[in-house]
Each structure stands twice: as C-alpha cells, then as structure tokens.
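Hi C.,

You asked whether I'd gotten around to modeling the 194-residue construct. I have! Everything is below, sequence then structure, no commentary in between.
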Amino acid sequence: MTWYPEGYLAKVPMTVMDMRPNPATGYPGRTYRFYKGPVVFPFGHGLSYSRFSHSLAIAPKQVSVSLTTLQAFTNSTLSSQAVKVSHANCDDTMEMEFHVDVKNEGSMDGTHTLLVFSKPPPGKWSQIKQLVNFQKTHVPAGSKQRVKIGVHVCKHLSVVDQFGVRRIPSGEHELHIGDLKHSISVQTMQQIKN
C-alpha cells in the first residue's frame, strides 16, 4: 500500500472515491497508479535486514502484436495507436520471459520480492504505471539468484481507454523491474487466420 503524507488527507474528501486526479478541483488521485505527489512510503516499499541489487540477464526489446482477422483491421481496432485486445492474437506466445539476477549485497540472508511495473507509452493513457507481476526469492548473503518472470503482452501491457475498452498501445512501454528500467517496443502487424 502507499503511505501518503498528512497533507494528502486535506485534499481527499472521504466521500470521493475517484482513482484518477481531477485538476479542476485539486483532487490528487489515489493509489500508485494515478497519484503523482509526495509519499511517505511508496507502494511496494519493503524493509529488510539486507540490500538487494538487480541486473537483467535476458530481456526482449520488442514484440509484435498480430491481429486475428481481416475484419479486425478497422479504425476502431487501431484507434489512438492501440489495438483492441479482443482483436489481437493473445495466445501463450505473447508472454515474454525476463531473467533477472537478484544479488544480496548485505551480510544477512534475505527474502526479496521482485516487483515488475508497466508504464504505457506517452499519450492519453491515464495511469502512471501498474503492477504486472512479482516473484519472491530467497537469496543468501553475498550471493545472487536468477529469477525468471513473465510479462504477457495482452494482459500486462494493455490499458483500459476512456470508453472502457482494453487496448494494447503501440510504441515504447517502460518496464520497471526492481530498481531497473527497460523499454519494450510494441508494434502491430496483421495476421489473417483461415
């Protein structure tokens, strides 16, 4: 959970449950997905008796999203440089694997939770980022463990637009993997199934 500073409470009436910020009223928004202000402890912050660092061992740099039918290739499908998830080929091949080396730099054994967040390309997508996966691993002092973690394009890189339609935006998505940032280029290509 996100721990907000005391001043946050003055801006958030108890009767307003909106997630997205409203600049017209000064409402700052809620949760790590929409709130951009200062925090006491950010979402995912954890205390440990050890220190952990991360490095990417294997990480894809681009992925192509194929459409399932010719009829799906319409203006509504490709609206706003994004593809409707319902018109994309979302099988198991759309899961990308990341291999992350988690190193325990402290003097005590520790368990670390590796968090993976996705941030959509710049545009009208309203969220800042969203948690898409996590993996907990035990790492003895002074050693490192390789963690394999998956990111599914249709499930994890998609966003809901202002009309409630789930879409996969084209362009550079930014993944935050632990303390690392990694860009994935999402491209659209048409594939016709017979």
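If it helps when you're writing up: The mean pLDDT is 85.

Thanks,
B.
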